[in-house]
Amino acid sequence: xxxxxxxxxxxxxxxxxxxxxxxxxxxxPAPKEYLYVWTASADTTQPDFLAVLDVTEDSTRYGDVVTxxxxxxxxxxxxxxxxxxxxxxxxxxxxxxxxxxxxxxLTDPTHPALAGEFGDLEGYGHPHSFLRLPNGNVLAxxxxxxxxxxxxxxxxxxxxxxxxxVRSRSANAPGLDPATRVYSGGVVPALDRxxxxxxxxxxxxxxxxxxxxxxxxxxxxxxxxxxxxxxLGDEGMLTAEPRLLADGRRLLVSTxxxxxxxxxxLDGESPSATLVSSFPRKKDxxxxxxxxxxxxxxxTVPAWSAVVxxxxxxxxxPREVSRVTLGTDDVPHWISISPDRRRVxxxxxxxxxxxxxxxxxxSTTGALALDERFRAPGDTVAGFVMTGKTWPHGxxxxxxxHGAVFSRP
Length: 409
What we know:
Elements: E1 4-11, E2 19-24, E3 34-41, E4 49-54, E5 65-70, E6 78-81, E7 90-95, E8 100-105, E9 113-118, E10 124-132, E11 138-147, E12 150-159, E13 165-170, E14 185-188, E15 193-197, E16 210-215, E17 220-226, E18 239-244, E19 251-255, E20 259-264, E21 272-278, E22 290-293, E23 296-301, E24 306-311, E25 319-325, E26 330-337, E27 343-350, E28 355-361, E29 368-370, E30 384-385, E31 399-406
Antiparallel strand pairs: 1-2, 3-4, 3-31, 4-5, 6-7, 7-8, 8-9, 10-11, 11-12, 12-13, 14-15, 15-16, 16-17, 18-19, 19-20, 20-21, 22-23, 23-24, 24-25, 26-27, 27-28, 28-29, 28-30
């Protein structure tokens, strides 16, 4: 019988408590896993930064800071990154307040490097979301376009992984409200389509219930459709995040007003959108980022201070199977799932504006549970708290995390 060391490998087969099996001395060490957290400095005289955390489950440094990388300028307002680390290890991240975006080279996780930055491109300003295309390029949604008549709807800009412009197209179309802003998108390669949403990040424009459908191959804008409202009369307002279903043909599209819509018929002349679910909401708190993992749809629901798991085996009739509930004053916003589909990172506002939380996810049952181990010794709440730290790059300002993604294996 082989001798065993004290090291263990932990799994999440039972989400309420970690089940740990001994690891043989001769077993290969578990691969290192990291969490990249795009972070604003609460002290605007100090730089914003990318934090790298050790989230290797059998590491004695689980949850510790590995390093940080500051970015040029101040008050960038770190916001969205790509929703998962791409194969080339280059992560696009926007600083929405300054209008600058940054490209991080994460091929060596412990030594991240800034590979590029950009601002307005092709006359378009304030990029928001970054979508990887089948060819490896990045499609950026830009909120607005600068023109002689002031701000008009933005558009799409395709970039190489190095940030060089390949092509661009405007979202402006006859009859479109000039206050329309391009927010996020979903790529449907099998149908040669892209679907984008139309929420104004600054809240200066009237709330929109519209989606725009584009042809992927030449970025031609094909159609603008309006979501139908439900019983509350406004579930379709503030269109947010499209996510492609496993069939490769349909999308689930969330709204900040907590509606969930099934979009079908994208290869035809008349795409349809049907309200299939909705959640309660509080004033000035909005449902936000979703993830699809197998036949489960995970989404933040601030009214419940929770991330909710829906079974979407039948996407026309989603069914809640689990939720992980945070603190009463926590307002979850961003989520991203690990490549092995076993963990979900959560950031947000309210009482969690300076905290990063991890939930465990069972991809077989859809169950979610808080990772209580992900915290510093002595902390009274679960999660990595970004206050009271002296950062590797210098300075000790509290961090305000937003986009966060797990490393690739």
